[in-house]
Specification:
Blueprint (H helix, E strand, L loop, with lengths): L3 H11 L1 H5 L5 H14 L15 E3 L2 E3 L1 H10 L3 H6 L6 H24 L7 H18 L3 H11 L1 H4 L4 H13 L4
Antiparallel strand pairs: 1-2
Helix pairs in contact: 3-7, 6-10, 7-8
Length: 177
């Protein structure tokens, strides 16, 4: 069965082009997966509920079920584009908060990450991975950063420790960790 709800969330969080380009663009797929993980893993009542399971894979949190649905959606894009949107107020609020978060991250990332070389896809991989690890270690920032560096040495090597800590601060201020 086609998941119209997932379509509406991706379209509102990232834009229709992320749905349309999902099958052909790896970075696009990576960003969709990581953004959906973040949206479903806010602390407390801000999260969006989706009926998909997550595992930790090579590039961080990943849902094969979401991947299959996103590919499937592309066969029905004309119908999805013309259909009625089904988002609850709570979800609209979560998407609005995520938009503010995204602006804060991208503003910081684009202006202040001296010495860091992450692509946008790698940035979202970093954010989702930090959020995933934080769920395991609770409020232990030192342990979070240590585990991240061990799991993701290539990403950790592309971002200064100070900038990684600043990304954690932003994640914390928006209640992801």
């Amino acid at each position: 069965m086609l998941d119209r709800h997932l379509f509406d969330i991706v379209k509102n969080a990232l834009g229709l082009e992320f749905v349309e380009n999902y099958p052909t663009d790896f970075d696009n797929r990576l960003i969709v997966q990581k953004v959906l993980y973040l949206l479903t893993h806010f602390k407390e009542d801000k999260r969006i509920s989706l009926p998909y399971n997550w595992t930790f894979y090579l590039r961080g949190p990943y849902s094969s079920e979401i991947a299959h649905m996103m590919y499937y959606m592309n066969d029905f894009l004309p119908e999805l584009k013309n259909g009625h949107e089904f988002l609850e107020e709570k979800e609209k609020d979560a998407l609005a908060t995520f938009e503010q978060f995204k602006e804060a991250i991208e503003s910081y990332y684009l202006s202040d990450l001296d010495g860091s070389t992450l692509s946008r896809a790698e940035l979202f991989e970093t954010l989702a991975t930090l959020t995933y690890i934080a769920k395991q270690v609770k409020d232990d920032r030192e342990k979070l950063l240590s585990i991240f560096s061990g799991l993701k040495p290539s990403l950790a090597g592309q971002i200064t420790p100070l900038n990684l800590s600043k990304l954690c601060d932003i994640l914390e201020s928006y209640q992801f960790i």
